[in-house]
Automatic annotation (TrEMBL):
It comes from the Eukaryota. Keywords: Mitochondrion. The keyword Mitochondrion applies. The lineage of its organism: Eukaryota, Sar, Rhizaria, Endomyxa, Phytomyxea. This is Phospholipase/carboxylesterase/thioesterase domain-containing protein.
Length: 326
């Protein structure tokens, strides 16, 4: 199992023992003055105007009128693939047959989502790189499993596939969305521990690599005792102060590579209300190390947490990343 990688055991069933993240770590402060919650933030020494719910809606008109309907159409109304061969994703090589292919691309969907939500990535990559194998696995329990169990499940599927003998010397690109980004980092650390010797590129879209303060608040609330055990443990893992988050990030930044350093591309939405506080994302990116992990970051101002997967520029960056000589 992967406890030795993350340096921690799975989170215990949460309840009254769980505590919220340290308030001093929050990038924004919330005050209640005239009865309405007001957020204030300071960026680069300049005071921002208070962010209210109304101003947030106004800043996200494009999200509410264009991207959100598209997300619902893609995730709710298309229907899941029905044939066993297309169970993971209606893309080429869902069963991980390497043939003469020279590149493995792994697409990891978010919490409670499904592989078909990444169909845009799969189609563009398939068209641009016909010699690559695209693998979009259905995440264990749709993400409602511990990080240890989920990454172990991914590893077993890869190791027992026809790629089992080839992956150590094959360039690998991993695209993770939201919780899929957290899995991508843990999977990358495992590949390094297993002595992957070729290059690895990680594309983290709306990354939940530092957890979410929302999860921390839920875990610390009185309602936590009513959450089913399996779900409660996962919620506990997402708290920024959780042992799982801390251990996984230590493994990601410290596990030596047998080959080239991992190159990471972070795509973050400035209006992301799920991956908070933003200050923790800044600290995570700042740990970039030329010998182990090299990080590039791009902020998107017209997107929310759920709409980044529809951004054509991100898709183009991923396609270009796969095309680069390695």
């Amino acid at each position: 199992m992967l406890h030795s990688i993350f340096g921690c055991a799975p989170e215990p069933h949460i309840g009254r023992q769980m505590s919220a993240p340290d308030g001093n770590e929050m990038a924004v402060t919330v005050k209640v003055g005239d009865g309405a919650p007001v957020q204030e933030a300071t960026v680069s020494g300049e005071e921002r105007a208070p962010v209210t719910f109304t101003s947030h809606l106004q800043a996200n008109v494009k999200f509410w009128t264009v991207y959100l309907p598209a997300v619902f159409a893609r995730n709710l109304y298309r229907g899941a693939p029905t044939t066993s061969r297309c169970r993971d994703l209606p893309a080429r090589d869902p069963d991980l047959q390497p043939d003469a292919h020279d590149h493995l691309i792994v697409l990891l969907h978010g919490l409670l989502s499904r592989p078909a939500s990444l169909e845009l990535f799969a189609n563009e990559l398939s068209s641009a790189h016909p010699t690559a194998t695209i693998w979009a696995p259905r995440i264990l329990n749709r993400g409602l499993a511990t990080l240890d169990d989920t990454v172990q499940h991914l590893w077993e599927r890869l190791d027992q596939s026809p790629w089992g003998d080839r992956w150590p010397t094959t360039p690998i690109t991993i695209v993770g969305v939201s919780n899929g980004s957290r899995l991508a980092c843990a999977f990358d650390a495992l590949l390094r521990q297993k002595h992957h010797r070729s290059t690895r590129h990680l594309h983290l879209v709306a990354p939940a690599v530092v957890g979410s303060s929302v999860a921390g608040l839920v875990a610390a609330s009185p309602l936590a005792r009513f959450i089913p055990g399996r779900v409660a443990n996962v919620v506990g893992e997402f708290a920024p102060s959780s042992a799982v988050i801390q251990g996984a990030n230590r493994a990601f930044w410290e596990t030596a590579s047998a080959g080239s350093p991992t190159e990471v591309f972070v795509y973050h939405a400035t209006h992301d209300l799920i991956v908070q506080p933003v200050g923790l994302v800044d600290e995570w990116v700042a740990q970039s190390n030329d010998n182990v992990v090299v990080v590039s970051r791009r902020d998107f101002h017209d997107h929310n947490h759920w709409s980044l997967v529809l951004d054509g520029e991100i898709v183009g960056n991923i396609v270009a990343s796969v095309s680069r000589p390695r």
